[in-house]
Automatic annotation (TrEMBL):
Coiled coil: none annotated. SUPFAM superfamilies: YgfB-like. Pfam families: UPF0149 (PF03695). This is YecA family protein.
Amino acid sequence: MSTRFNYDRLVELYAQYDMTPSASEVQGMLTGLIATGSDAKSNELMILMSDLAYDGQGLPVELENLLQQQAEEIEHSLGDEELGYRLLLPEDTTPLSDRLSALAGWVNAFLVGYGVNQENMTNLSGDLKEAIEDMVELAKVEFTDDGDEEEERAYFEIVEYLRISAMMCYAELGRNEQPANQPPKILH
């Protein structure tokens, strides 16, 4: 993913709008929604993000524009032949405990976005079903940080697995056309 949306800058921008979810969680939600068929350029996506990330309030124009740009970049990078999608997480120099917290937030938020568009897993490929089940299990884990090299390596392996899983989800579900006459999902 392009450095245009870096973690620290988005933390600052979202704080200006009193967004409850973290920058990682917002990206996880957007990714889950887009990877399961929401159109990044649609007004329906912004309605969903208002419900999911802004307590159902109308999004300020500037925030909506920022989310729209981020959604379009996510959609582009998920379909990138160069496998350009990257999870939005704190820099590697950030303490591992903070990175693990952001990672847990990303996973939970991805599953929220995924759940909005996917009601069951019966039609998923075996690989994607396994990846989603792994994400559900990861969402239950309480990460600990002993600060050793083995945990750092495990963190990077999990990040890479989630990155590939998100792209696999998009390849299987996100490119499917949604019916044009389908009304937007309102969560409140």
